[in-house]
Specification:
Oligomer: heterodimer
Number of strands of chain B: 0
Largest sheet of chain A: none
Shape of chain A: globular
Structural class of chain A: mainly alpha
Largest sheet of chain B: none
Number of strands of chain A: 0
Strand content of chain B: under 5%
Number of domains of chain A: 1
Order of helices and strands of chain B: HHH
Number of helices of chain A: 10
Helix content of chain B: over 70%
Distance between the termini of chain B: 46 Å
Helix content of chain A: over 70%
Distance between the termini of chain A: 80 Å
Strand content of chain A: under 5%
Radius of gyration of chain A: 20 Å
Chain lengths: 265, 80
């Protein structure tokens, strides 16, 4: 016969450190944005230095968690950790032998795992893909906005054909869809609502867009900030990530596969 | 205006570069080791660790381990 205590232990009574005072607010988020941008800037000087910056930033997120005092900060930290991990993977993965689209495919698997693990700290993955109050018609409208946007992007930055290497067109399309999925889920699906919960709607939109644009600093892509604001605004209005994910997939498939084939024969 | 970024850097960013990727791979290995050590220490700690801290370390350890394996496989395929 076994005996069990009838007095339940108070939850977390033994494991809560006394000095849990860290609250992620606007100053800390701006500091994080600066550190992320500096690490991205280091890519122009040295890839290992930039990798070190991303690694330190990711580890800082882990170190900070035990000191966080509120639920909203604890929800934000996994996302703030996931972003530099994704960037570290992009810099360190052995993809030198691949053409640009197959390279994205190689990077898609570990980055999808990062996003899945970051999501599962707080939600189920299915919750991310709910349609929101606006319904499927609004989400479809957001997806279709990507068509004129893709024309503008292609006219401003035409993509040279041959990026898909030896991949068949359908496989290249699937790879492109898988490659943009983690980006959108991370920045629009997880980061934007988490910052909104901590610092308000305006900060959620602006800071998540700036963090997304910061990951393009070394690529000298001036349109990233404008694109991030546009999709971030759509995400905020529709309260769902489904439309913006669809829009990004349509945009990259048109810009990287369809338009080069149409305009270059 | 076109930003004046040195072409080799952009080449690395767009298509990857074996040498730079190898050095960055060493940094990845260091971060992976720190994450795994921290996780091992947390799990052996008494009282039981907070589950969210262990989950957060998984965000680092699992994908970095996959990339580490990919780096090792790639180096072996280079040797053969």
């Amino acid at each position: 016969m076994t005996f069990r205590s009838v007095v339940p232990a108070p939850p977390n009574a033994l494991v809560q450190p006394a000095g849990r005072t860290l609250v992620v607010g606007l100053p800390l988020l701006i500091g994080y944005l600066t550190a992320l941008a500096l690490s991205e800037g280091l890519l122009l000087v040295s890839a290992p230095l930039a990798a070190g910056g991303f690694g330190l930033l990711a580890l800082a997120g882990c170190v900070a968690l035990p000191f966080t005092a509120d639920e909203r900060s604890q929800a934000l930290l996994p996302v703030m950790t996931a972003i530099p991990v994704v960037r570290l993977i992009v810099v360190a993965a052995p993809t030198a032998d691949f053409a640009s689209i197959p390279r994205l495919g190689v990077l898609a698997l570990p980055t999808l795992i990062v996003v899945t693990l970051a999501t599962r700290t707080r939600h189920s993955v299915g919750q991310l893909f709910r349609l929101g109050p606006s319904g499927w018609a609004t989400q479809l409208a957001v997806v279709l906005v990507a068509v004129p946007l893709a024309v503008i992007v292609y006219l401003l930055m035409p993509v040279t054909p041959g990026g898909r290497g030896n991949l068949p067109v359908i496989a290249a399309g699937i790879v492109l869809a898988l490659a943009v999925l983690p980006d959108e889920l991370l920045f629009r699906g997880l980061l934007q609502p988490a910052i909104t919960a901590v610092a308000g709607q305006r900060a959620g939109l602006y800071l998540s867009a700036m963090m997304y644009a910061a990951t393009f600093i070394a690529y000298a892509s001036v349109g990233a900030l404008a694109a991030a604001f546009a999709v971030g605004w759509c995400r905020q209005r529709t309260d769902s990530v489904v439309g913006v994910v669809g829009a990004r997939v349509v945009l990259v498939v048109l810009v990287y596969l369809a338009f080069p084939a149409i305009f270059n024969g | 205006m076109t930003p004046s970024v040195p072409p080799p850097v952009l080449d690395f960013l767009r298509y990857g570069d074996a040498k730079a990727s190898m050095s960055a791979g060493l940094v990845l290995l260091a971060v992976l080791l720190v994450a795994l050590t921290a996780k091992a220490l947390l799990q052996s700690a008494s009282p039981a660790p907070r589950q969210d801290a262990v989950r957060l370390l998984n965000i680092l350890a699992v994908p970095l381990f996959i990339v580490f394996v990919a780096i090792v496989v790639e180096r072996f395929s280079d040797l053969s």
